[in-house]
Amino acid sequence: MDPSVIGQKLVFGLFVGSNYGVVAVGLTLIFGVMRVLNVAHGELVMLGGYASYIAFNALGVDPYLSVVLSAISLFLLGLLLNTVLFQYVERLDEEQRIKNSLLISFGLALVLQNLALFAFSADDRSVRAAYAGGAFVIAGIVFPYTRVLTFVVGTAVVGALYLFLQRTYFGMALRATAQDWEAAAGVGINVRRTYLLTFGIGSALAGIAGSLVLVTFSISPTIGLAWTLKALVVIVLAGMGSVYGAFLAGLLLGVVENLSTIWVGAEYQQMVGLLLFLAVLLLRPRGLFSR
Amino acid sequence: MTAPLLEVRGVAADYGDVRALWDVNLHVGAGEIVALVGPNGAGKTTLMRTIAGLHRPSAGSVVLDGTDIHQLAAHRTVERGLVLVPEGRHLFSEMSVMENLRLGAFSPRARRSMAQSLDRVLGIFPILRERQAQIAGTLSGGQQQMLAIGRALMSLPRVLLLDEPSLGLAPLVVRSIFEVITSVNRDGITVLLVEQNAHLALAIANRAYILEQGRVVGEGTGSELLHDKQVQRAYLGYVEASAEA
After folding, report:
1. Residue A178 forms part of a structural domain
2. pTM over 0.80
């Protein structure tokens, strides 16, 4: 086996995996803090993609710059969705929250999907920036500009989230609320507002992921479910609620899927990912990166 | 007598269809230590949670310094100076001792003086200074209780609600916890104390209430109740002693 082939698969796996990671980090942040499982997360990714698509076509904004735009618009949409829908779930017991949020967000996913079909039609969309198609080569391994940028932006976003959660007082309050919301209320943290902002941040991460998906893959109104499922697999691999672990697990899944194409056909790589998922569930059910 | 700092007026509380508290009336004057004793399941913890804003009363009101607070969210009652050290401590167990303490000062009123509060709390509990980088969940039971009280003191309480501070702790540790309670009380913090160990609670309390099956069935000064035959029989384990005498 040519080592540069393995190297190439590894690198592409990391690039794809960074996409998985960013999608999963947003979903697991919301779940970890609020015990709300938002299966419409993939639809938020899809909408983030369209925000970038519109910015590129109407205003000529570079898709990597419009990451900011889709982050802001999805943050605001997240605040809205939390206010009109999910805040009613947050008042329930934790057990009830998971079940009820599943039902509500499944309905929300259908609504968003059909609104997008109505607004944007069912066509696949992607964007081609001027530098798309360009690449540099190191040691026989090809690094396409767009893939590298996607990886860099994704990593930077998760790094920024890490700094926010670990180094700021409000980030500390958010982690405290995730651990024990009653104790958080007991030290004067406004739990309702913390949940609201968490949902906004998680949605913004979905929006950012959407912009990245638009450049590296393509988008259509129906891509949401596939991304939600991918994120759920990644979250279980990482261990529920492990935010940074979700990014690492995303990278791992990308690498495993890509490396598997050396031995099995590319059409089986989804299956290989699911086999990894089953293996982790059997051998280490609390996840790879949970304490 | 001046108006009490904390007043519970005709409070009823329910869990679903089950009533846990019936027409509970009590008051705590500024600077007092008031104990709440009674058997398991009497509703003591429910009453504390209701006062702290974690459980909505079905009837009645909770008044702090002349203002109704029972409709406020829990974080607002903290802002007003009513702070609960809950049963089971509820630390942020995956976070460090220092992070727990700093979070105690989250409400705007307390945040302004976080540095001084930290000095004071670490002065009261020197062990927490030694363990400041340790993860809270890995502390011993006694240290966890100290951290829970320390975190509450970081919120600058006017009224400190303590729910079962001695639960599961060794007698020596219990004694030092109770010394801290009386000492912060001398510094001007009003205390409402729920305690299984009625003997200990009545010994440091100015006054006490007896709660049974969700109702207040008795009250008096600490020493009155300590010497009350019925209370002794029910809560202080004097049955055998008097039978042998």
Report:
1. yes
2. yes
